[in-house]
């Protein structure tokens, strides 16, 4: 792994902000590392983000274009434009104006359910940690980097199929588990090339041959 890619990743503003928040949250989590509920909350946060990675990607980011211009521009920034220009670094990462409210919201729900600040902080640590893992895997998929492990190379291949073969399959970035469970995992040779894979707005046009 070339140092320039690590620098490019961790100095990108949105990633830098999330990394700082992760380290702050982690510093409180470490002080309770010997408590079972700490590990339960940490794993719950990671699993929660892993599930949302797939569900949000499939059902929100690939949503039918909203009529409202504001929401349409928001969706274009979050994902439509990323499909149009997959290797554009400035469209690659989730913006903090999107990530922070979601993290705060899930943290608030965790606190309402547990009334425990330690559990809530640890849960948030898991969420942010997995978000950074997702961002790294997504970054690697779109940069001229060869993943070290066979698993990493396979996941990169799946994600590039999603971007260049057919946008209706392979939504998982860190794992294909939910694709397999929910029927969006296919062998590449069994899927036809989509004419709208680079233009998500057009897939809703009635005259487009999908």
Q: Name the shape in a single word.
A: globular
Strand percentage, roughly?
under 5%
Most strands sheet: none
Give average pLDDT, whole number.
Answer: 94
Number of H/I helices: 8
Radius of gyration: 18 Å
Helix content: 55-70%
Structural class: mainly alpha
Number of strands: 0
Order of helices and strands: HHHHHHHH
Give unreliable regions as ranges. none
End-to-end C-alpha gap = 38 Å
Domain Fatty acid hydroxylase: 43-184
Membrane topology: Multi-pass membrane protein
Keywords: Endoplasmic reticulum, Fatty acid biosynthesis, Fatty acid metabolism, Lipid biosynthesis, Lipid metabolism, Membrane, Metal-binding, Oxidoreductase, Transmembrane, Transmembrane helix, Zinc
Protein name: Fatty acid hydroxylase
Tell me about this structure.
- There is one protein chain.
- The longest helix is centred in the middle third of the chain and has 26 residues, at 117-142.
- Helices cover 63% and strands 0% of the residues.
- It has 210 residues and is mainly alpha-helical.
Compile the SSE list and pairings.
Blueprint lengths: L2 H8 L2 H18 L5 H24 L9 H16 L11 H19 L2 H26 L7 H15 L12 H6 L28
Helix pairs in contact: 2-6, 3-6, 5-6, 6-7
Cofactor: Zn(2+)
Main location: endoplasmic reticulum
Keywords: Endoplasmic reticulum, Fatty acid biosynthesis, Fatty acid metabolism, Lipid biosynthesis, Lipid metabolism, Membrane, Metal-binding, Oxidoreductase, Transmembrane, Transmembrane helix, Zinc
């Amino acid at each position: 792994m070339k140092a320039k890619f690590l620098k490019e990743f961790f100095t990108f503003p949105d990633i830098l902000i999330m990394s700082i928040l992760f380290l702050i949250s982690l510093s409180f989590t470490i002080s309770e590392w010997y408590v079972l509920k700490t590990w339960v909350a940490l794993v719950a946060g990671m699993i929660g983000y892993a599930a949302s990675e797939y569900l949000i990607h499939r059902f929100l980011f690939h949503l039918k274009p909203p009529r409202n211009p504001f929401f349409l521009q928001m969706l274009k920034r979050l994902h439509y434009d990323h499909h149009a220009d997959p290797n554009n670094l400035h469209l690659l990462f989730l913006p903090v104006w999107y990530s922070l409210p979601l993290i705060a919201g899930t943290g608030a729900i965790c606190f309402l359910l547990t009334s425990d600040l330690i559990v809530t902080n640890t849960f948030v640590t898991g969420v942010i940690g997995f978000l950074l893992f997702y961002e790294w895997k997504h970054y690697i998929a779109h940069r001229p980097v060869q993943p070290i492990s066979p698993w990493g190379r396979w996941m990169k291949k799946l994600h590039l199929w999603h971007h260049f073969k057919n946008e209706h399959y392979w939504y998982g970035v860190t794992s294909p588990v939910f694709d397999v469970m929910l029927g969006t995992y296919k062998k590449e040779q069994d899927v036809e090339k989509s004419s709208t894979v680079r233009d998500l707005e057009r897939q809703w046009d009635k005259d487009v041959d999908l």
